[in-house]
Amino acid sequence: MAWLVATGVYFMISVWLYVILSRWMTGNGVLKFVFCGTIAGLGLMLHQGLSGDLVNLVPSVLLYAFICELFIFFIAFVRSSVSVSLLLLLKDRPQSQREIDRLYADEAMVNERIRKLEMTDFLEKAADSRKLTAKGRALLSGFRMFRRFFRHEGPERTL
Amino acid sequence: MIFITAYLSVHFLLYTLVLRNLRFFYQEKNIFLYHAISFLGVSTAGVGLVVLEPAVLGPVIGAVSLHGIYSLSFLELWALSDGGYSLRILDQIDNPRAAADFKSLEVLGASKKKYRLSSLERLRLVAPHPAGWMLTSRGRAVAVFLGFFVFISKQKERV
User: Fold this and answer.
1) Which spans in A93-157 are helix H?
2) What is the dihedral of CA B86, B88, B90, B93, to 10 degrees?
3) First to last CA, chain B
4) How do the domains of chain B map onto residue ranges?
5) What is the spatial distance between Cα B86 and Cα B15, in angstroms, rounded to a whole number?
6) List of chain B residues whose C-beta atoms are within 8 Å of the C-beta of residue A80
7) Could you say which of A50, A130, A142, B44 is the most buried, measured as most Cβ atoms within 10 Å of its Cβ?
8) Whether the Cβ atoms of residue A9 and residue A48 lie closer than 8 Å to each other
9) CB nearest B82 (choices: A110, A131, A150)
10) CATH, range A83-149
């Protein structure tokens, strides 16, 4: 059972490292957690190795990786989901449809996403508009490959 | 571990070779159920095994974690390649015929917002209020939970 406790403790360490790193520097939250999670994960492997409990090394690393992936899912979700931002907006007080429409003005939503894509180097300003960077082009080709694999059709299908 | 790896390979191959071509599996809900039922089945079988033989706790937790990693990665990729707003923006900008057509992106943003509010209402997370929209008690619990991730992800302000 000690390996289960160690897994939980090293996960908490990764979260604390992430909180400290987030307060200290700007940048992509997911990448920051991947960095912190990797450091703490290596610590967990070392801990398991030194404690001599090699039988439970693989289960503890798999459990740790699963919890970390769930955590990454949530931090990415709260940063990008329209549904989450609507829920958080309504947490303080009820909002009128007009207030929601104003805060989520269609143009503002597009501009905010474009700003984030520029900040993360997926887009760059061109002469009269914007164009994809090499990083953006690579992401898009991966996205198109997955769309074909999952048999997603026209853009209007799920909206 | 060999058993769960073989099981997950069959689960993935079944989707790749057969199920992804069926219209039934074009829907998010059905893809989710395909993974959720399998995950619950493996977890239940695992609990049964642990009750019969407590020494297998480690391998069972490892197997359930591996299934969790596989299913979460699969579902995230499925959802992202289907409806990711940022990816749609990149796709739109990369399309030479519609490079400057930000109007269609605004329409996409507006439909996303409308779709999300009705989805949140269907999930009983928000409800109509005389002033507009309010959180239900379930919605408040979810908002507090997600607010935790916003709080710990709080970044250093950009200067």
Assistant:
1) 97-103, 106-119, 134-149
2) -130
3) 49
4) 2-83, 97-152
5) 27
6) 85-86
7) A130
8) no
9) A150
10) 1.10.10
Torsion of CA B103, B104, B106, B107, to 10 degrees: 120
User: Can you give the pTM of this predicted structure?
Assistant: 0.82
Q: Give residue-wise pLDDT tens across range A44-81.
A: 999 999 998 888 999 999 999 999 999 999 998 888 78
ipTM of predicted complex: 0.81
Residues 6+ positions from A2 with CB-CB distance below 8 Å: A51, A53
> A102 in contact with B at a CB cutoff of 8 Å?
no
pLDDT digits (tens, 9 = 90+) for B37-79: 999 999 999 999 999 999 999 999 999 999 999 999 999 999 8
A14 and A36 Cβ atoms separated by less than 8 Å: yes
3-state secondary structure of B129: strand
Burial status of residue A141 (CB atoms within 10 A of its CB: 0-12, 13-18, 19 or more): exposed
Nearest CA in chain A to B31: A150
Give percent of chain B above pLDDT 90: 48
DSSP state of A128: S
At B132 the three-state DSSP class reads strand
What token pair was written down for A127?
């002469």
Instruction: Select from A96, A114, A151 the Cβ nearest to the Cβ of B26.
Output: A151
Give residue A94's pLDDT band: very low, low, confident or very high (50, 70, 90): confident
